[in-house]
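Reading group handout, session on sequence-to-structure problems. Before we discuss, look at one worked example. The prompt was deliberately terse, the way you'd type it at a terminal:

> structure Group 1 truncated hemoglobin

The input record follows.
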Amino acid sequence: MNEQSLFEKYGGFARISRVVLSFYDTLLDSDDIGPFFDDIDMSRMVDHQTKFIASLLGGPASYTDNQLRQLHSHLPIEDDHFDELKVVLGATLKDHEFTDPDIIAVLQEFEKRRGLIVG
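And the output record:
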């Protein structure tokens, strides 16, 4: 019998999309992170981020390491920005009633991609 992924446990794309919308509500208010999105098509960004977060939860969508590196290579993302993203992501998952062990698991998956995202 297959073990249920976090993606399945938390309701798939519909719920992950709501999490991502909440995530960006907070990020766009950040003085440090918000400016990264000034000239970005946010509906497209939310779609990409939903797929990315879904992949962190074991969902069907995924990005290769090379794609993640290319998507972020032109941005001056530093460790402090990445750390803030992690804090906001963890708080958002908590707001959406993810359990603490599941939040830790998602943040660990996110952390594994730090070197691909931070310039």
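Points for discussion. First: The radius of gyration is 14 Å. Second: The chain has a mean pLDDT of 92.
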